[in-house]
Amino acid sequence: MIYGPRVTKPPSSTLRYRLAGAWSNGAPLTRRQLLRASAIGAAGLALPACSPSSSPTAARTLDAGPPPRPPRPPAPPALPVDLASCRPIAEVTAPASGFLADDFTRPHEVLWKLDEYFTNNGPPPPAREHTDVVVVGGGMSGLGVAWLLRDKKPIVLEQAPRFGGNSKGERWQGIEYSMGAAYFADTDPDEELRTKFYTPLGLDKAWRVVGDDPVVTGEHLQFQFWEGKTDKKRARDFHKAKAWFVDVLKHHYPDIPWAPGGQLDEAALAELDKRSLREELESKLGASLHPHVATLCDHYAWSTFLCGWEEISAAAFLCSFVAEFDGVVVLPGGNAFAAERLLEQTAAAVPPTNLRPSTLVIRVAQAADGVDVTALGPDGAPYTIHAKTCVMACPKFVAKKILVDLPPAQRSAIDRIKYRSYVVANVLVNAPLEVDAYDVYLLGDQPPGADLAAESTKQGVTDVVLGHWAKHGDPKRSVLTLYRPYPYDGARAALFDPASFTRVKGELEQQLPGILSLFKLEPEQVQELRVARWGHPINVSTKGQIADGTWAAARAPIGGRIFFCEQDNWPAPCIETAFLCALETEAAVRKVVTG
Hints:
Helix content: 25-40%
Radius of gyration: 23 Å
Structural class: alpha/beta
Number of helices: 18
Oligomer: single chain
Largest sheet: 7 strands, mixed
Shape: globular
């Protein structure tokens, strides 16, 4: 029973199952056969989308271009990167003066005004480099596929100064904690994610398995939620709800993505996807649906999918939620630990100039025998790389701005995908904690309300992770990680307002004394509150979009050389989806580059 806008769950894959609408390479395997997991998360570029898209034909008009200009001298060659300055986990050296994480100024100034940029600066320069693979995006998906293809010496272009996407973290006084994605699924030793990723990266030697986490009702920590400890008079209703969830896990599991051989056929999955979580829970549990169970599920949908139980697809929710009964694991620094390992091992295998942070891709176009990728380096100078293949490991609302050859139907599918925001605040405390739990859920005592914006504003923080827990605590200090989702339309624009930092931090500070009291801490023991803003890290799993083919259409490869590899390939935003995409993309890329 874990939740929060921080990472993870779905399918492990074996490169060899058909993903309705994606490429295929052999016999299908279902998600349930490959991974028992837990939910949410994230990887990839974090570029806000609060202004209108540029014209679909903007990049296509480049060939006509502005009036002829004098030839532009070629940009200087890429320089080796100082990995210490762009690692996913950064050392805390000074108090933060504003939001951490997202910095959307540069991409907004260019990607949201591409017509203007090319009018002022001329057409893309000719290719100065030639390579097999370019990866656009250095989040978990991009690092994952680059690591798998490290023998092909891929070039990875990441717009942010640090790699990791929303799997970033910090280190304070020896404690590593997450600023975003924070946990993922436990696996059996022979499952593919373990053998292809976790063991080679050494993750299974560093993680800690999560046990029974408490909820907060009546301003008290309550363990054994599913035993009915929050309402002993109705304990039977908790038992019934748990039994139903476990039955779904064992006998009716909704594999996402769907493949033949699972517990639900394709038609049954589509029908489940058409129903909201609320419709499904009320139809299956009826009068026995306890308000605490309903609230827990609703808040899980807030923080895992950034939407409420009336909007979320029942199939997407159950795929994540019931899998958590199989357990999750936590690394020091959350999923940033995994991103660090990917970056380290990739850097050891590719030329020192191939990993390029602070590099903004502005155009991706099919060309003779490959793909031309134009980017702005840290100095702002444009240059073009000609590659045999290009991996779009960035959110699709970004991809649609820079892809010249995006088919109209695919653009329409991408336009139907919503993205929403959350905030993660880390409270640095000069005192140890006695509570030995990973995640504490601020459940409250009221059932879900109809006005989601008002309810989530009133709720504020949904849960508190003990950021020091993965290393079994610290004798002198602790870190409380607060998750504050914004599960409704319109919140993202408000977070981008220049005054939003003061407002958001003030709201967190107002809620903080009550949180501190749960752990017997005093306000004067807090050294700092550090706030990370994630403008759109999670694609919303709205009901009906599996059934109507939105996800399959949005992720379709282009021209046999441009592949989508991101957590928003499916309604399951998490690290497992990122790695699943990487495995599938690796197979497709190798077919092209090896002929």
